[in-house]
Amino acid sequence: MAVIIRRLAESDDASSFDCSDTPLNNYLKRHAWVNQQKSAIGVTYVAVDEAAPRVVLGYFTLATASAPRDSLPPKYVRGLPPYDLPMILLARLAVDRRFTGKGLGHSLLSEALRISLRVAEDVGIRYIITDAYQERKAWYVRYGFIPIEGGPESRPQRMFLDIRTLRLASQSNPR
Amino acid sequence: MLKAKTIGKKDAAKSSTRLHKRKFQADLAEAEDSMVRSLKEELQLSSNSDFLADAVALFRWAVRERKRGRRIFSEADSGERKELLFPRLERVAPGLALPRADIQWSAKELESIAELASREPAAPTDLLIRALRG
Question: How many CB atoms lie within 10 A of CB B101?
Fold first, then answer.
């Protein structure tokens, strides 16, 4: 199976997509295209098989966001420039349950990180954040994401990856 | 690297052209070779160099358009449109069009993120390095 990851298109078929998580399924089927094309509040990238290039096997959604500098504790603000901290939000990442365990999640996250690096070359980006389900937290940690403490327990774990760490990774050789 | 040398006026133009040209060699599968031959015939291109120059010009235009965030379509007389979706092309542009989202932060999260952002960057994990090399 040759997997291609590209931007979501209107003609893509997500009808059979099932990642065993209803909100993630619904987002892809009902909101991803509208949010991307009309509302411009998130760009979704899909993984498809080259042999069936319209059927979505997995996806992730990216947006930009920021942390308000005025709300940051003064002891840290002193060392930071006078701007909000710009970031990329990895808003969603999901793989169809029929394709789990085949490395598709790794491919999707890799592409999301590569896009983030490219974006960071063109606009200011300080870090990447994502909200991870508790059971997926360890998976993100393996890529270097660090849990951000202090979020409400009712919400998924917010996690942080410094864009400078990404740059270091892109310049490194595997050990 | 090209080496400069002293040449007579007579050969200047010829040598200058030669100095600025590079050889390009490609291994093509039989089907790809047939496709190139067929395209050359259709486009009435006699040389591989002309073929490559035109192909590069077209690719360069497509890359430039996608870098600007423009999408590429073909349109039939009926108005039916097909979008060109070429994965490598999608890699050059899309981030520029990332929209903005507002997210909620607790005071403790802001403190935590400020502390993380003021640290020296962590060393990348092996898996992260592998992810970016794919």
Answer: 18
